[in-house]
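Appendix B. Chain record.
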Amino acid sequence: MHFLIGVFIFTVVAITGYFFLSAFTSLAETAIVILALVLAFLAEYTYMKIRADG
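Structure tokens predicted for this chain:
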């Protein structure tokens, strides 16, 4: 179950980050994708830390 929650969080943050960055920045497409993935990895890491500590 936690795996599915993690995949859901990663997917939502990556897609949301991509659309947000593409709408409000003038960066290249590759940079936007990389930044969106970095944000998704940070969200996933934060979720795993909170789950492990709690």
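Further analysis of this model is presented in Appendix C.
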